[in-house]
Amino acid sequence: MNFATYSPSMYFMEATYLIASILFILSLKMMSHPDTARRGMFLAEGGMFAAVVGTLIGGHIISWTWIIAGLSLGSIIGAWMAVSVPMTAMPQRTALSHAFGALAAALVGIGEFLVNINELGPVKRGALGFEIILGALTTTGSLIAAGKLQGIVPGRPIQFKGQNIVNLATAAAMAGCFFYFWFNPEASAVFYSMLGIAFLFGVMLVIPIGSADMPVVMSLLNSYAGLAAAATGFVLGNNVLIIAGTLDGFSGFILSVLMCKAMNRSITNVLFGGFGSVIAEETH
Amino acid sequence: MNANVFSPAVLIASVYVFALAAFLGYQVISRVPPLLHTPLMSATNAISGISLIGSLVLAGSKGYPLPAHILGFVAVTTATINVVGGFGITDRMLKMFKNRAAAAKKEEAK
Fold first, then answer.
1. Chain B 29-68, CB below 8 Å of chain A: which residues?
2. Where do the NAD(P) transhydrogenase alpha subunit C-terminal domain residues begin and end (chain B) (predicted)?
């Protein structure tokens, strides 16, 4: 995008993005004190609203039907999800809502692939790969986390022999697809395999973890979704996505470390604790 | 100039933005009390619904084929669920804290 094509509405959009970014930062700051937490949340809501309005006005939007339909349908379902939940079931609803957000990041990635994969430069192609992988594994990971908290999926750590090797092999296959896709952007079969493997990998990451540790896992998945949004920002050249996504990505990571500290555990212990207990059982 | 390829200047600026935002994310959160861990997680979860912005672009942009619009529509829906649901749940959590704090104060007054 060069400066000659910048219209006033695009300057307006960039201004709302700047305001939204500042509001998100202030919001996180205020959310870390009990007295100001609620006000902080309203600032984040305001930031989100500003970014949406800015995009609708300055983002070269021409077809409104899909947008209005999506916004209203999503608001109804989201509001229902928030209002209908009993206090005891809050964490699984958070995980569920999170799965939806991550799915959106993955879908945007697929859309970008469909629209202009052959025109994307190497950096944007790499960012697109990260977006797809992080978005997809966060979607299924969050669904499993929600299922464990709800009791649909057994809450105890699910383990099997050779889990380590299977997980590593899956990760390697995913990385292989990523690099193949990076060098051969027209290989759509590889692209969709990468998507599928990432969905599978999300499940495998979360099933070996017990439901008591789920808040830490959710915070970590939250961090992945943030980084997926940041990757989207790199693909679309959109600063508010980069800023909000990265803020979210790193604060989510730090928060999961802090949560572990509060429980007197180390993060590796939570994430790979399942593997440890297999060994412990074997030595008994 | 092609918008789909990074010019070096834009790429460097984006990496700067990324690095500074990462640093800020770390700094801002590092002193949060354990009481607020869960609401903060819930709020950052709602903020990660910022991918709504990307979904809006996909759903409504000029010259995109129909499948992209449909994907965009689904993405707008799911991202909105994330944003509205996430903030709604956070609000209910924080309200609960407020009630608890008020109750604690009443106890003290007695």
1. 29-62, 64-65, 67-68
2. 15-98
